[in-house]
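retry 2 of 3: previous attempt timed out while embedding FE2/S2 (inorganic) cluster. Reduced batch size to 1 and resubmitted. Inputs unchanged:
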Amino acid sequence: MRLLTRLETERRLDPVSDKLQEAVSSVVRPRGLRDVLHGTWLGHPLHPVLVEVPVGAFVCAAVLDLLPGRRKSATTLIALGVATAGPAAVAGWTDWSELTKDRRRVGLVHAAANAVALGLYTGSLLARLRGHGAKGKVLGFAGLSVAGLGAYLGGHLAYAQSAGANQAAPEIARLPEEWTVAGSLSSLPDGRTAVRMAGDVPVLLYRDGDRVSALVERCGHETGPLGEGEVVGVGADACVVCPWHGSTFRLTDGAVVHGPAASAQPLIPCRVRDGKVELRQP
Ligand code: FES
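retry 2 succeeded.
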């Protein structure tokens, strides 16, 4: 754990990290492609889903390598793992390019470990295809060990550093449980957003005539201030664009229209009573 803390704060990685970030951003530029790779269409990051295939193939190949007479099946699984690691890596790099510096440092070592593992598995596949079964097994087990380190760092990124998690979701539990007045309807500008407090949680309100919708104001991607974001479109199609990385959320239901956010922005129950806008926990 001490090593991980040092890794998170290791600024000497930043020059490499910054250059790679620029490179990834310039290569994966089209917005539609970025949305696909972030998993905006899926409602969750795509990278961990794609990773299931090579990881599953490599683990099963290791089990088969321990059994007699299963060399061909193990070779087929390793070929599958090597072939499917590329798309998983591309999705991972795309997510990585929009993370904070501390997460990018850990992500860099996570990616490096996985690149080494992929190299070992590629060597294992070539050795097997050339009839060097024993060498193929050794390289395969070495690949699995290094991939295990990569997976550990990936777990740290996801669970200790919350990379890819919806950063807005915890705000829901801090909202008042009962209907609470957040302001008057007349104080809200029509067709624009306004920020009000519900308890101590900032909430983004959007008024469309007599209808008001409410979203958590902190962006689910990296807690950017949606209240400072531009509103595009009108009526039921109006969206707010996060000023930090451009995630775009529909104001009437929180649906994510463009990433890097992959999850919808949490919608808060909202009603108008006697000219007052009231909010509460879902
Ligand atoms: S904080 Fe990254 S898009 Fe909002």
